[in-house]
Protein 1
Amino acid sequence: MTTLALDTPVLARQYEDLSDKQYNHGKLLLGDLGLVHGQRVLDVGCGTGRLTEYAAGLVGEAGWVVGVDPLPLRLEIAKRRAAANLLFREGRSENLREFQAESFDAVFLNSVFHWLPEKAGSLAEAYRVLKTGGRLGISTASKERPHALEQVVRSVVERAPYDAYPVTSATTPYKVTSEELTALLEQAGFRVRSIEIRSFVDQFDTPATVIDFSRSSSFGNFLGALPDELRLTAIDEIKSELAKLRGPEGIVLTRNLIFAVAEKFDSSSTTRSIAS
Ligand SMILES: C[S@@+](CC[C@H](N)C(=O)[O-])C[C@H]1O[C@@H](n2cnc3c(N)ncnc32)[C@H](O)[C@@H]1O
């Protein structure tokens, strides 16, 4: 089970330093959303706010962007980003009540959805705060094509003594397939505009960098089901497995992410036009 109680100043700082991967695929997500000058945008699970700041640049001074995240240490870094059209708040995807209904042109969750154990409440909140015609963008780890790192981690945690613990997912815990995401979006009232899996080939210099990336991206939840002592030995074994993969280009691992863009449409107007 994921907890929000394991973040530390070191992990938050490492995330800021090591999150180029999320930042770069996040830019693709914002491209899919087609943000334009003057729009109001909500970044749910904004972390240290790098992508939020980038979004603020896209909407310009006539628009504004709010980032929300439940982790105070990540927000502390985010709040150092000064821009007149950029705001950060502590909050969770499943409770966006501080924002009025129909107040945003776009909402996005970049590398956040796979951390949410319960998806429907978060999608209902995104739907509520979006204006009619507004767009939701999601990038999330694919259940049908797990990251290469997942296989490496599994090869270790499925061995004794780690196999005595319920490591249900070796990396991101609450992945969905494209089909499941489509169904969730439609159940929340969205119309899916696009959904596809994109693959990213990542290069890491050392096994230790892979572990730092995983621990900071998971706000301390990496191998969280293992007791502290076993987690340390498992990490050593994972590092050995990663070292075996090292080639002239370093350690090369592929990530597969679902990118979805969905629109809030006015179902009552469709019903009306069918009825008339
Ligand atoms: C991998 S980071 C992604 C951060 C940022 N979106 C980015 O692209 O760099 C995952 C983020 O999800 C946030 N998160 C976890 N549970 C959440 C929830 N229930 N509501 C909102 N954000 C959540 C974490 O606090 C963390 O900052």
Protein 2
Amino acid sequence: MSASAADGGRKAGAASAEDRRLGTWAPRRPTPPIVGGEGCELIAENGDRYLDLTAGYGVCCLGYNHPAIVDAIRRQAERLTFCPLNVSSAVRAEYVEALAAVLPATLDRVFLCNSGTEAVEGALKFAALATGRSRTVALRNSFHGRTLGALAMTWNPAARRPYAGLLHDAVFVQPEAEAIEQAVSEETAAVVLEPVQGEGGVNVLADDLLLAARRACDRHGALLVLDEVQTGFGRCGDWFAHRHTPGLEPDLMAMAKGIGSGFPLGAIAYGGRVAEALRPGSHGSTYGGNPLACAVGLTVIETLRNLDLPARAATMGTRFADSLRSRFASNPRVREVRGRGLMIGVVLRERAGRHIARLATEHWILALPAGPNVIRLLPPLIVSDEELERGAEAIQAVLGGE
Ligand SMILES: Cc1ncc(COP(=O)(O)O)c(C=O)c1O
């Protein structure tokens, strides 16, 4: 714990010039301005250190300022920071091979972009082109991003309402096998799913639901798009969350967040029918596959592999979830602890917001909400058992009766 914060030295709560300029004034910012990071911690300008059990929205899978990432950026920056797409790039060529090696064998092509919403948006375009259809089926409680196509498939009605009439045609169904089967038709271009819904509440989709979506797509000539933006790159205890469901093969997969561990990078993987439909120029991105992003992406894959982090996330996540379950077995505030790997939700019988705020201001621990009543934990995959224990103790302290 830091003395300055204990003294009440934080500046949280005030509308900063940054907030006003960006139009994102948040009345209860939990920390003073952040100026640095190390491992699983963010460091504030007054020296306070915050244990970030969200890895920055699930982005920094290798934590903050991982030496291998810093080194990769430095080395690549000295060589070349941008390379146009009309010439070939050595680091891009190396990266797409490395990426293909961790993807499902059926998805042997990749499109590189810069964020999650771009990956979903591109996947939608590809599905429309390959099927000649534009309707998509998405799930209640889904989150796919904020650009027009991705937003159209994002469940939260408050996020979509201001754009009513401007978004493309998405049908939302309950996350149930039968509901998906009924919604898919000859007009459906794609069914779009997160294998574990993040923003919507850390909902692990059941194998039978995922396989029913696959079958429904096959029956009607639609495509299955998996949004692994939050769940991919080791987060859920395997390279991709859908690998926990034997026999599940997507037609398209959207990736971002962990793929660049903090560097803006996204990708769409595809194969077969989609590859046949795409032509040079079907889609594009000036910055997609830039040398810095590719150098970082390579380092992320190498580090995940060298440290066996996807498997480690499975063991650590199970231990952490068990520890949370035993702490809350008789706590009336907690309904359940659920999740997969190091993507964990503590589901409350009440709203989660004030508990998350107290975690930050009283315990220097960052957590995220997921839906109204879930505390979402997405620690960096390099997190230690001690850090997870510290987190569990703090959550117990804020939930343990007042
Ligand atoms: C499942 C999922 N898809 C898409 C996105 C959008 O990603 P980005 O914020 O990088 O555009 C997010 C972001 O939280 C996400 O969790």
